[in-house]
Automatic annotation (TrEMBL):
SUPFAM superfamilies named among the record's database cross-references: Thiamin diphosphate-binding fold (THDP-binding) (SSF52518)
Dehydrogenase E1 component domain mapped to chain residues: 2-176
Organism: Sterrhoptilus dennistouni
Pfam families per UniProt: E1_dh
Protein name (Swiss-Prot/TrEMBL): OGDHL protein
Superkingdom, natural source: Eukaryota
Family, similarity comment: Belongs to the alpha-ketoglutarate dehydrogenase family.
Native organism taxonomy: Eukaryota, Metazoa, Chordata, Craniata, Vertebrata
GO cellular component: mitochondrion; oxoglutarate dehydrogenase complex
Annotated gene: Ogdhl
Length: 278
């Protein structure tokens, strides 16, 4: 499995989540063993000038915090794009992490009209021959394909899209199970609809709850001197267990404990879980 993320240039530099997830990228419990980031770059984000949007020359400079290699490639050259993507995949496979950058023709989205705020740049972009035509002309001139073969390929692709669009209007059932990466056995019926959503009983005996409560309020090592603040918490927890009372924290302990008793691994993730602050 290879994770690939597609970003817009302004979002890559401007959204804190990108910087934050880069810093998660090498942590033991979070790494994807390298993500390929494709940054589609037309130098503006929602018609904002780069000089008004960020302090570094390139949007991809954010990736330098983890020393990710950054490749700049012209999207008007499909073979160069393919070459860089292969290099990126090899790098990711051998080492980790990656960024690929290219230009896009439109503004922030297809509804956006960048000519209002970026007339000079977009006059230049409108003069650009679209990449499909440019590449087709090159292949035809080289004798790699004929004009007829090219037109047939375009017609074939258009037909696939049109047929899929027509079929989508007739779809009455969402075949959810087809795109779940591992359909849960018995969860869906043959039509792709979920079966009964009722849960089996999950209750456990009071004896087991008391056992978990006692373990959760004890210190596992003999003669181990713990912080007085913690000993107060443990004492209060022990009293609650004795009096058949629970608070949120003890209820969580009992939930985790009962699952662990069944031999099921529990992974805690979130703010200060290692310290047990919450």
């Amino acid at each position: 499995v290879m994770s690939i993320l597609l970003h817009g240039d302004a979002a890559f530099a401007g959204q804190g989540v990108v910087y934050e997830t880069f810093h998660l990228s090498d942590l033991p419990s979070y790494t994807t063993n390298g993500t390929i980031h494709v940054v589609v770059n037309n130098q503006i984000g929602f018609t904002t000038d780069p000089r008004m949007a960020r302090s570094s020359p390139y949007p991809t400079d954010v990736a330098r915090v983890v020393n990710a290699p950054i490749f700049h490639v012209n999207a008007d050259d499909p073979e160069a794009v393919m070459y860089v993507c292969n290099v990126a995949a090899e790098w990711r496979n051998t080492f980790n992490k990656d960024v690929v950058v290219c230009y896009r023709r439109r503004g922030h989205n297809e509804m956006d009209e960048p000519m209002f705020t970026q007339p000079l740049m977009y006059k230049q972009i409108h003069k650009q021959v679209p990449v499909l035509k440019k590449y087709a002309d090159k292949l035809i001139a080289d004798g790699t394909v004929t004009l007829q073969e090219f037109e047939e390929e375009i017609a074939k692709y258009d037909r696939i899209c049109e047929e899929a669009y027509t079929r989508s209007k007739d779809n009455k059932i969402l075949h959810i199970k087809h795109w779940l990466d591992s359909p849960w056995p018995g969860f869906f019926n043959v039509d792709g609809e979920p079966k009964s959503m009722s849960c089996p009983p999950t209750g456990i005996s009071e004896e087991l709850l008391t056992h978990i409560g006692n373990v959760a309020s004890s210190v596992p090592v003999e003669d181990f001197k713990i912080h007085s603040g913690l000993s107060r918490i443990l004492k209060a927890r022990s009293e609650m267990t004795k009096n058949r009372l629970v608070d949120w924290a003890l209820a969580e302990y009992m939930a985790f404990g009962s699952v662990l008793k069944e031999g099921i691994h529990v992974r805690l993730s979130g703010q200060d879980v290692e310290r047990g602050t919450f």
